[in-house]
Amino acid sequence: MSMAGNLRKVTGLGRVGGLRGVARLARRRPKVDLSHPARSPLGSSVVNCVTYLGGVRAPAAGDLVEAVRQVRKSGDGFVWLGLHAPTDQEFAGIAELFDLHPLAVEDAVEAHQRPKVERYGDVLFAVFKTVCYVEHEQLTATSEVVDTGEIMAFVGPDFVITVRHGRHGSLGPVREGLEADRQQLAKGPSAVLHAIADHVVDDYLGVIDSVQADIDQVETDVFAETGARVDPGRIYQLKRELLELKRAVVPLGRPLLELADQPMRVIEPEIQAYFRDVSDHLLRATEQIAAFDELLNSILQAHLAQVTVAQNEDMRKITAWAAVIAVPTMVCGVYGMNFDHMPELHWRFGYGLVIAVISVACMALYRGFRRNGWL
């Protein structure tokens, strides 16, 4: 039985009618590279399983148990098993084969974990939050900007098991990059863990650059002439999405420092220097997120100030026009009283004089308010 077939057996998904069933499934589905899709075309959680000997990808021969036995017998190489959102039943056989700690297995299956690094004997369990920028034509108060997922990694002396949750963050490019660098891959499972951490942090920086474009657009709109009419929901939405990005990035700082500074059995001392470089990149991402948060606070305060100023401008205009209208209202109110003995009531030029007085008074008020910027 092939290694892929044995994996389906180990994960409890081998009941597809043997090799003939697999062949029928393969004919019905297009052939794809198992290192890139979210899930295997055969329907299991197994994305890929490869053996590396001396930094070189070994031919896929034999089953998984035999591959692990061969790697441990030779003492040179490791097995890299990639999974996507496995269930308890799918992961049970793998956990038993590699003697994984139940607590780490539970975290890997259930997901929704904070970034962390835990040690269980000779096995290192690491959790990374992946992020992806969600493209949108125009930012609105309900636009999704950042989507998150997770990558869990079990790193042992002769194996790496990666468990991915979410529709993004494929490790196919990571695998291809390592296979192109034979010298780095020969350093063992810790080189794979570094490559994953570096890939995740690089994605952080890419998403941050895209979020910055959204923030720049909002900032431009707020400080435009019509900035007071900008929907504040757009700013709040950016702050919410930035908070989600912050929850993924900031907690990873301490685990990376542990990988870079604390001695660990499965981490080669030479690889720790690479983790320090990744930690520096993460620090840059963290600082940018903090700067974005402060900038959005400033933009929101500026927008609220603009709204207040616009309201004051409107109130001043209303008050000025009310003062102008008050003059004819007052004069007309006085001469609208029904008294027989009123000054100039029956004067031939009284009407024209009143209209002239009203016009001059209103014009004087208008020019005064105009000169002071109220109109």
Characteristics of this structure?
375 residues; alpha+beta; seven-stranded mixed beta sheet
Description:
This protein has 375 residues and is α+β, with helices and mostly antiparallel strands. The chain has twelve helices and seven strands. A seven-stranded mixed beta sheet has the order 2-1-3-7-6-5-4, with helices on both faces. Helix 9 (232-249) runs antiparallel to helix 11 (269-335) and helix 10 (253-261) packs antiparallel against helix 11. The termini are far apart. Residues 12-43 have low confidence and may be disordered.
* Fraction of helical residues: 55-70%
Helix count, per DSSP? Answer: 12
Output mean pLDDT: 81
Q: Can you write the helix and strand succession as a string?
A: HHEEHEHHEEEEHHHHHHH
The portion of residues forming beta strands comes to 5-15%
Low-confidence stretches: 12-43
Structural class: alpha+beta
Span of the ends, CA to CA: 87 Å
- Write down the overall geometry: rod-shaped
Q: Strand count, sense and closure of the main sheet?
A: 7 strands, mixed
